[in-house]
Amino acid sequence: MVEPRWGRRGHGSRLLSASVDHWRQDGFDTAVFWVFRDDAATVSFLTSAGWAPDGAARALDVDDLLVPQVRYRTRL
Length: 76
Known about the structure:
Layout: H1 11-25, E1 30-36, H2 40-48, E2 52-62, E3 65-75
Antiparallel strand pairs: 1-3, 2-3
């Protein structure tokens, strides 16, 4: 994740690309990412990079508040 104040400068794309390179080198062929359901910026970033929701969902307990998340998946 890239701190929001540093967003829209290509850091996320470079970080994701480097991560994919390492995952492939380690033999992985798919990757998953849990994202807060209402985080439009991250959802947009992931979908533009070819990721898609796979139907899984959960709620993360943050200070006694359940925050809904959805899982995104991509083939490497």
